[in-house]
Amino acid sequence: MCGRFVLKGAEEIPGRFAAVAPAAVQLALTPRYNVAPTQEVPIVVADAGERRVDLARWGLEPRFRGAASAVLFNARAETLLEKASFRRLVPTRRCLVPADGFYEWERLGNRKLPWLYQVRDGELFAFAGLYDRWTDPEGREVTACTVITTTPNELVLPVHGRMPVILPREAEGAWLDPAATDPAALLPLLAPYPAGGMRRTAVSTAVNSTRVDAPHLLEPVAA
Q: What is d(CA 6, CA 221) in angstroms, rounded to the nearest whole number?
């Protein structure tokens, strides 16, 4: 799974992803160090011939009776086409979810110790995501997203059985391409990122609280 991530390079998103950011969105692109589900996050979508940065709540709402309280902040790559909540989004509602790190927790006895995972150069990257838009009962337009997960690479496996799909830079355009609507051609993109292109750092348990969102969360501690 992916339940927390880092976005300290938020201001770089428009330039890094060659995307237009409306003024209101640009103001919201501030550094984050402990992003959690249900919070607002920037996403990159391809619309009307250009890439655009939008803001979306992290967590989709399933569209079936009795599930209104569920928040789908992750989607398993292997079952995307089996789940009604995701299957309808794959052809035309794909997005990039920018990040520059994510956290996973290692269980040691009764303790949960966090690790920060980043790409080797520490730069901004993109999770593969899906998004949806709808109008709520009050007439407001809602945009929400989910992060796709896959099997772990060798670096993540000792800590967790899932990892978010990090798209190689050369695959970002293919994932966003509006002309690509065949799921069979898209699913091969949802592979584990190579372990050799990543690094991990033991960090403070302060990250366990969603109320803490500060640069010191990225500082290494003894594992």
A: 17
Q: Which residues are catalytic?
A: 2, 104
pLDDT at 66: 47
Question: Per-residue pLDDT for 65 more than 50?
Answer: no
Tell me whether residue 215 is in a domain. Answer: no
Helix (H), strand (E) at residue 143: strand 141-150
At residue 72, does pLDDT exceed 60?
Answer: yes
Q: What share of the chain is helix, strand, coil (3-state, %, to 5)?
A: 20, 40, 40
CA 181 to chain centre: 21
Q: Is residue 207 part of a domain?
A: no
Encoded amino acid at 71, one letter:
V
Structurally, the chain folds into a number of domains equal to: 1
**Token pair listed for 171:** 């695959």
Q: How confident is the model at residue 45 (pLDDT cuts 50, 70, 90)?
A: very high
Residue 55 lies in a domain: yes
pLDDT at residue 171 is higher than 70: yes
CATH number of 90's domain: 3.90.1680.10
Range of the domain at 161: 5-101+124-192
